[in-house]
Amino acid sequence: MGYEGTMTEGVSKRVVYSSQPQDLRATHDYLTSLSFPADDYCVLTAEMPAGAVVPVHSHSDRESFYFLSGEMNFYNGDSWRILRRGDFVDVLSNTKHAWRNAYRSSASLLVVTTVKMGTFLQLVSSSLEMEPDPGADSRREEHFLKLVQEYGYWLGGPEDNKAIGLSTSWHRN
């Protein structure tokens, strides 16, 4: 018996925490359930708006990305490369990596990762339909940083991001 539909009934897209403005934050939609063991796989789609940046980071979870549409720059720990529709990238455990959409349109990706990472993304995300709250960004940042520590993930600081050509970081400026 398989699972069909999105993970969270009634909520299609969720916006992932970022220090960037709301309109530059990635969204995702679950295609598989998060009710399986943490090391099982999770499949989701992600949408990266034009201008979005995911600063340098690493984690023990393997991630695989297949580009459905658009273009993005991907940093693989050594150098930047351009990924386009039909390209595939496999990010092994503990690889320092980053993303930047320096193009004029959004990029859509199919993502395969662990249930652990899927759960983390769910916990650091909010519904697109949520009303703006003036104090919410600082509370979300605090919640995000706490979960990063609990999950044992690594976030590059401003100097790490600057070294690879990114002017944004995980913390709000």
- Helix/strand/pairing category: alpha+beta
**Major sheet:** 7 strands, antiparallel
* Average pLDDT level: 88
Strand order of the largest sheet: 8-5-10-3-2-1-11
Shape label: globular
In total, the number of strands is 12
**DSSP helix fraction:** 10-25%
- Approximately what portion of the residues adopt beta-strand conformation? 25-35%
**How would you spell out the order of helices and strands?**
EEEEEEEEEEHEHEH
Task: Work out the radius of gyration.
Answer: 15 Å
Straight-line N-to-C gap:
48 Å
Which residues form runs of ≥5 with pLDDT under 50? 1-11
The number of distinct helices, counting runs of at least 4 residues, comes to: 3
Walk me through this protein's architecture.
The chain has helices at 115-123, 136-151, 158-163, and strands spanning 14-16, 27-30, 41-48, 53-58, 63-69, 71-75, 80-84, 88-91, 97-100, 107-114, 125-127, 154-155. The protein has 173 residues and is α+β, with helices and mostly antiparallel strands. A seven-stranded antiparallel beta sheet has the order 8-5-10-3-2-1-11. Strands 7-6-9-4-12 form a five-stranded antiparallel beta sheet, with no helix packed on it. A hairpin with a 4-residue loop joins β6 (71-75) and β7. The longest helix is centred in the last third of the chain and has 16 residues, at 136-151. The chain is globular and about 35 Å long. The chain starts with 13 loop residues before the first strand and ends in a 10-residue tail after the last helix.
